[in-house]
Design goal:
Elements: E1 9-14, E2 37-38, E3 41-42, H1 43-53, E4 57-64, H2 67-71, E5 82-86, H3 91-98, E6 105-110, H4 118-128, E7 133-139, H5 140-146, E8 155-157, E9 160-171, H6 176-183, H7 192-198, H8 201-208, H9 214-223, E10 229-233, H10 246-259
Parallel strand pairs: 1-4, 1-6, 4-5, 7-10
Antiparallel strand pairs: 2-3, 6-9, 7-9, 8-9
Length: 260
């Protein structure tokens, strides 16, 4: 008797623009970051190609303020089962509106996650099983062993310093209370201690004194919302290198060239 194939998970791809001017777009000739060319094609196309190449991923919904502009991108023409939706104010509110009914899981990533691969998706989804909320992260030693020049935002916990990898698995609408909470603090997403403090003084004290690991801290934060939350450590440092700065893009293009 053969094992059943897993049901492909729907994906939500966040491709909107944050408020204010984006220095990456200066002189680029494009109006939104998702369409910024990297290694000859828009970053959005790289991410969609990785998602579509994974047999574990089903329909893909692309969220952006002006989704029609992204839908017209010629580089996306060959991909099946793409859907486009206009996002609202803020990532959390937009994501909440796009979640399917019920509590079936959904995979979430971003348009600047250019180095995403089917292997990363498989590793993450395997590690994320049996959770309500799962977050992919990379430990600093994993990244710096191969890319010491890469600058990331790090969360310090007992046993390591961690950076997010722009991959999330959410169990449908049961995570809405968490998304509502996140909408009030997402402007501080790059300020590690502010994020930790928002979940309560005990979590902040524990992080400052290194009383627990990041896995234990995320599990505690999830329990505040009645959710089973977990960190999925990623073995590939590339998983946390997203296209935020010109130096990131230079590094991403070198990595893509080496892959080819």
């Amino acid at each position: 008797m053969t094992a059943a194939h897993p049901v492909p998970i729907p994906a939500i791809l966040l491709a909107g623009s944050r408020p204010g001017p984006d220095p990456l777009l200066t002189g680029s000739g494009v109006s939104t970051k998702a369409l910024l060319p990297i290694a000859g094609q828009p970053m959005l196309v790289h991410v969609v190609a990785a998602l579509r190449a994974s047999p574990l991923v089903g329909p893909i919904t692309i969220l952006a303020q002006a989704s029609a502009e992204l839908a017209a991108e010629p580089g996306l023409a060959g991909f099946a089962d793409l859907h486009f939706a206009d996002s609202g104010q803020g990532i959390s509110a937009s994501l909440a509106a796009a979640l399917p009914e019920g509590d079936a899981p959904v995979l979430v990533t971003t348009a600047d996650n250019v180095l995403l691969t089917p292997a990363m998706i498989a590793a993450f989804l395997t590690g994320a099983e049996d959770s309500d909320v799962a977050v992919a992260m990379v430990e600093r030693r994993v990244l710096l062993a191969r890319y010491p020049e890469s600058k990331r935002t790090w969360l310090k916990f007992r046993g390591g310093w961690w950076s997010g990898a722009n991959l999330f698995r959410l169990r449908g609408r049961r995570v809405l209370p968490l998304l509502d909470f996140w909408s009030r603090i997402e402007r501080d997403r790059k300020k590690g201690l502010k994020i930790v403090a928002a979940f309560g003084p005990w979590l902040l004290i524990g992080a400052l004194l290194r009383l627990f690991t990041i896995q234990q801290g995320v599990a505690r934060a999830g329990r505040r919302f009645g959710l089973k939350a977990k960190v999925v450590p990623m073995a590939e440092g590339e998983a946390c290198i997203d296209a935020d700065k010109p130096a990131d893009i230079e590094l991403i293009e070198r990595i893509l060239a080496a892959r080819r």
